[in-house]
């Protein structure tokens, strides 16, 4: 695939300093527009969408997420990382190339999301019937 900023990172000279690790199937890189210090991306080497990942690619990405999580926790023990993706949706900056964001966060996922969705601000346990109804729809 040409003209994909994510595909070009491993081979671009100007990006070499922000690359964390590269394997045959996946790589991790510091985000050039970090939301916080330590914000990184984990990306399959092949230009692909989430649903088209091979099992080997999915495993390689997962291994990099686990390894990077451990390294981020060692550097930022007060900010456990949140793993996030909006890939394959119109909300993604590059929707045709699946990738994860891994972001150290002192506030936790609920508080982070509450900044974008104000109705999330308080914890409320859902009723069993409501959860069963939603699960049924998703099946």
Describe the structure using short key phrases.
five-stranded antiparallel β-sheet; alpha+beta; HIT family, subunit A; globular; 139 residues
CATH homolog superfamily: HIT-like
The structural class is alpha+beta
Q: Largest sheet, order of strands side by side?
A: 1-2-3-5-4
CATH class: Alpha Beta
Strand content: 15-25%
> Which spans of ≥5 residues are poorly predicted at pLDDT below 50?
none
CATH architecture: 2-Layer Sandwich
Assembly level: single chain
What's this entry about, in short?
With 139 residues, the protein is an alpha+beta fold. Helix content is 31%, strand content 17%.
Describe the protein's architecture and organization.
This protein has 139 residues and is α+β, with helices and mostly antiparallel strands. The protein has a single domain, classed as HIT family, subunit A (2-Layer Sandwich), CATH 3.30.428. 31% of the residues lie in helices and 17% in strands. The chain is built from 4 helices and 5 strands. A 5-stranded antiparallel β-sheet has the order 1-2-3-5-4, with helices on one face. A hairpin with a 3-residue loop joins β1 and β2 (26-30). The protein is globular and about 55 Å long. The termini are far apart. The mean pLDDT is 89.
